[in-house]
Write a structure and sequence with these properties.
Length: 199
Amino acid sequence: MNDIPGPAAHNSLLPVLALPESCLFPECCREIVVSAPSGVQAIEIAERSGRTLLVCGYRDLTTGQLYDVGTVATLAGSSQLPDGFTVQLEGHARARLVTVVRAGAILAEVEPLEEGDAGESWGAAVEALARYIHAHADLRAFLDRQRRSTEPMGWVNLACQHLPITASARQKLLDAGAAERCLKIARGLDALLRKEQTI
């Protein structure tokens, strides 16, 4: 298994931590409780094989169908619970599921995805984020504590990870490359702010 957290030039075989109604973005961190048997096994495999795994959301929880795109992440920390783990995840890079194998744990061959160049698109996203957090001082303090990167896309990814949007909207942002993600989050933040100001 690949123990390099960033995207590689080749596909990797990784355990999959599948999350209901949730996803993880590159350059973002999350602490979650894992108790589902397949998730517990994914954590145990990752701990024995480089602490790298793919974090992916469920497209349909009832059928177990996963979204096509997830995030390669590192287990930054974990602690055992009576029925699972509390884990700290650090997202690194997006990857597409190529082949999925279910044998208790979920394993997948994953293909690294290029983020692409955000170009000038990140400017509009960061400006929209600045307008939104100006109206939400507590959110700015929270994002400052969560921030792991000084790059502008780090701010954009934090917005995608933490702002009050639906799980399916969040997944669409993860599916998008850097430039498209910036444009979508800029439009979304301004629309969200307008909606909040009219309530």
